C-alpha cells in the first residue's frame, strides 16, 4: 500500500505490506531543456511539475533489490532514481529523466517528436542508513542538453521501523540554520519560461571593473572542438539596473560540437546560465563562414533554483569569420538579448569549428579592432611628427641665441 500527496512539492510515501513507511521523499524540481526547433534553431525551455503527478513503479527495496522513486507528470514526462545500500549506508545510483517533445505546451515547435531520455549518475555522497538526507538549497545536475534543478529535498530510502529518521545528513550547500523555501504555486505549473518570473536580486553590488577574461573549451572525444576566450558581463534592467560579472573561476563550460552547429553553455555558480549557438553558412559555392546565431540567458535563485529571469535571441548574425579561422574582438561589444537583458563581451576570441592542435587559428578581427589597428600607426606617426617639429623649433631658437650673442661681441 502506498500514499501520495502534492502541494507545492512532490511528496512520495511508499508503504510496505504491513502499511509501514519504507521509503519517503519530499522535494521540488524543475528542468531546463535545450531542443532543436523546426527551423533548426536551438531553444531552451523550462519544464516544471504539473499538478497531476503519479508515482507508479516506486518500490521500497531491500537487501537484494534497489529502492526506486519514480514519478510521472504532464504529457508523457517522467523522472526516477534508484538507491542501493550496504550494511551502513545508502546511495543514489542512476537518475533517469524522460521528456516528451510531443507536449506542445512546452515544446511548441520541436523538430524531433517523441520521448527523449537522459540518464546520469547521482553525484550525492552515501548517507548513513538511519539518517534522512536534507538539502534546502538548490542543487544542479547537468547532462547532455538538460539541467536538472532540485531544492527543499527531504529523502530517506530504506526507512527503518516505519518512521522517517530525525537524524539529518545535510548537503554541503546548506547551513544548520537553513530553512525550506516555499515558492509561489505558479512554479508548479508546466510552462515555457521566456519572461521574467520574479524581481531581480538587489543585494549584489554594481561592479565598477570589467569582468575577468575566461578561457573555455569543449571536446568531442579526446579532441578539442571549440575554443573561447572572453570576459562576460550581464546588464539586467528590471526594478533596478544590475550589472553581473561572470567569474571564470566558478564557471563551468558545457555544450556540443557539430559540423554545422555548435553550442557553448556557461554555468556560473548555478545562478547564471548563458549559452551561445553558432552555425555555418554558405556565402558562395566554395566559401563557408560561421557566425553567432543564438544567445540564451537564464538567471536562477541561489537559494531555491527558481528562474528569476530568462531571455533568448535567435536572430543574431554576429561574430562571423571564415570556417577554419577564429573571430577576435578586444573591444567591448553588446548583445541585446531582450529589452531587459544585455550581454557585454570583452577580449573576445572564439573558434567553434575546425580546431586543430588545441590552438586558435588565424583570427579575423572585428571592425572596432581593425579601426584601432589603423589608428595606432597614425597616432604614432603624428607623435613622431610633433616631436620633429619640437626639435626643429628648439634648433631655430638655439641658433638665434647663438647669432645674437656673436653680434653683441
From TrEMBL:
Enumerate the spans annotated as Lysosome-associated membrane glycoprotein 2-like transmembrane domain: 376-407
Entry's localization field: Cell membrane; Cytoplasmic vesicle, Autophagosome membrane; Endosome membrane; Lysosome membrane
Renumbered residue ranges of the record's region Disordered: 193-215
InterPro entries xref list:
Lamp2-like_luminal, Lamp2-like_TM, LAMP_CS, Lysosome-assoc_membr_glycop
Q: Where is the Lysosome-associated membrane glycoprotein 2-like luminal domain?
A: 211-356
- Residue ranges, compositional bias (Low complexity): 193-205
Can you tell me where the transmembrane regions are?
374-397
For this protein, the record's Pfam families field holds:
Lamp2-like_luminal (PF01299), Lamp2_2nd (PF21222)
Name listed for the protein in its UniProt record = Lysosome-associated membrane glycoprotein 2
Where does this protein come from, organism-wise?
A: Lepidothrix coronata (blue-crowned manakin)
* Designated gene of the protein: LAMP2
